[in-house]
Design a protein that fits this description.
Elements lengths: L1 E3 L14 H5 L13 H4 L9 E12 L4 E13 L2 E17 L16 E18 L13 E14 L3 E16 L2 E8 L4 E7 L1 H10 L8 E5 L2 E11 L4 E12 L8 E2 L4 E12 L3 E15 L9 E16 L2 E9 L8 E13 L21
Parallel strand pairs: 1-10
Antiparallel strand pairs: 2-3, 2-18, 3-4, 4-5, 5-6, 6-7, 7-8, 7-9, 8-11, 9-10, 11-12, 12-14, 13-14, 14-15, 15-16, 16-17, 17-18
Length: 373
C-alpha cells in the first residue's frame, strides 16, 4: 500500500467552526472559551462556565454547491476537567453520475442518471484538565495552566467509488496570567492518516475509455501543525472592552504560499479583534490568509509581477440569556462568483456552574496580603 503526504491533506479541518472565530480570521487558540474549544484548543474547555453547552453552525459555500456543518457539545466533569464533542461535515451532494447516460442503442436516457455525494466527516472527542503545580503557595488555587487532548476519527467518501478511514490525536495547552492568555495547539501530533479503499471495478470502464490509470489503495498522511496564540483584553470604558488576538500557524508539509515559507516549514499569521459592549453585543474583524498572487492584468508573460493579498473578515454577535447568536462575513478566497460567505452559528448554555468552576480562579495573580490585625 502506497503512502503519500500531500499538502492540504484533511484540509476541511482547517476551515474552522463558529462564526465568532471566522469573523476574527480564526485567531482563536488563546481566545476560545466555549464549546468550540473542542476544535480550536481542547485545553480551553475548562473555561466554560456552564455544566452543559451546545453549538450549531451551517454554511453554504460556492453558491450553495458545498455545505459545511458543525455541531458541538461540552460537559463539565468536575471542578478541574471538561469533556467536549464535535462533528464536522463538508459535503457536495446530488452529484450526477452520467456513466450510464447512454443506453444499449447509444441513445441518451436521462432516467439512467444516478446521484451521489462526496463528503468529509470528522468526529472529535476532547478532554481538558487544569493543573495546579504552576501556581504555588503565593498564587490563587488552581493555577493558570490547563492541558487538553483530542482524538479524531475521519470518514471520507466519494460516492460508491472510494472511501477512507482516518485517525489522529491533537494536544494543546492554555495559560492565563493577569489580562493575558496564551494558547498552544499541536494538531495531528501523531500524524493523522487516511486509509483509502478504491472500488476499481466501479471505475474500470470509465477510466479505460479515457485512457487513465486506475487509482490504487493509498495511505494518505497528514503531517503535524503547530499553532501558537496570544491575546489580551483591554477595558476601554466601564461598558466597552477590546480583545486583540494573534495566532502563528506553522505547517511542516513543504513550502506553502504564505507570508513566510521554506522547504522545512511555513508560517501563516492570523489576527483578530473583538469589541464588546456590556458583554452582550460584539463587533469583530480579522485579517489572515496572506498570499503572494500573480498579476495577469498586463497580459505580458515576460513582465509578470506579484503582489501580496490578504483575507479580511468581519462579524458580530449578541448574547440573549442562555443563547448566543454569532454572524460572520467571510471571504473564501475570491474563487467563487460571490466570494463572500454569510455564516451563522448558535450557542446554547445550560445550568451555570458555581463560582469554584469559574475560569478566573485559574488566572495567575498574587493573593492579597492578609491583615494580621
Amino acid at each position: 500500500m502506497a503512502q503519500t503526504t500531500p499538502k492540504y491533506s484533511n484540509e476541511f479541518l482547517s476551515i474552522g467552526v463558529g462564526a465568532r472565530a471566522l469573523g476574527m480570521s480564526n485567531a482563536m487558540t488563546s481566545v476560545v472559551d466555549d464549546v468550540t474549544a473542542a476544535y480550536w484548543n481542547p485545553a480551553a474547555l475548562t473555561d466554560i462556565e456552564h455544566r452543559y453547552q451546545f453549538a450549531f453552525q451551517h454554511a453554504a459555500y460556492f453558491a450553495g454547491v458545498a455545505n459545511y456543518d458543525y455541531i458541538g457539545a461540552a460537559m463539565a466533569i468536575d471542578t478541574d476537567s471538561h469533556l467536549g464533542l464535535a462533528i464536522i461535515r463538508l459535503g457536495i451532494d446530488d452529484i450526477p453520475d452520467t456513466r450510464l447516460l447512454f443506453d444499449d442503442q447509444g441513445r441518451i436516457d436521462y432516467s439512467r442518471i444516478q446521484f451521489f455525494s462526496s463528503s468529509d466527516v470528522a468526529f472529535i472527542l476532547s478532554y481538558a484538565r487544569g493543573v495546579s503545580f504552576i501556581g504555588g503557595e503565593d498564587f490563587i488555587d488552581g493555577g493558570g495552566l490547563t492541558f487538553g487532548t483530542s482524538f479524531k476519527v475521519v470518514r471520507r467518501k466519494i460516492g460508491p467509488f472510494a472511501t477512507a478511514w482516518g485517525f489522529g490525536l491533537d494536544l494543546s495547552a492554555k495559560y492565563r496570567i493577569n489580562d493575558w492568555d496564551f494558547g498552544l495547539m499541536l494538531r495531528d501530533i501523531t500524524t493523522t492518516f487516511n486509509a483509502w479503499s478504491i472500488d476499481k471495478e466501479a471505475l474500470r470502464s470509465s477510466f479505460s475509455q479515457t485512457n487513465n490509470s486506475l487509482p490504487s489503495n493509498t495511505l494518505e498522511l497528514t503531517l503535524p501543525k503547530l499553532i501558537f496564540g496570544a491575546s489580551r483584553t483591554f477595558t476601554l470604558t466601564d461598558k466597552v472592552t477590546m480583545l486583540a488576538s494573534a495566532d502563528l500557524v506553522f505547517t511542516f508539509d513543504g513550502r506553502r504560499n504564505v507570508l513566510v515559507s521554506s522547504k522545512l516549514s511555513s508560517l501563516d499569521p492570523q489576527m483578530g479583534f473583538e469589541f464588546g459592549y456590556e458583554n452582550k453585543f460584539f463587533l469583530r474583524m480579522g485579517f489572515g490568509n496572506f498570499q503572494r498572487v500573480k498579476d495577469f492584468s498586463t497580459g505580458d508573460a515576460s513582465s509578470e509581477t506579484t503582489f501580496w493579498s490578504f483575507q479580511p473578515n468581519m462579524g458580530m454577535g449578541v448574547k440573549l440569556e442562555d443563547f448566543t447568536i454569532d454572524y460572520a462575513l467571510t471571504d473564501i478566497g475570491n474563487v467563487a462568483e460571490s466570494p463572500y460567505s454569510h455564516v451563522f452559528s448558535i450557542r446554547y448554555s445550560l445550568e451555570a456552574l458555581p463560582g469554584i468552576y469559574a475560569r478566573n480562579k485559574r488566572r495567575i495573580k498574587k493573593k492579597e496580603a492578609k491583615d494580621e490585625n
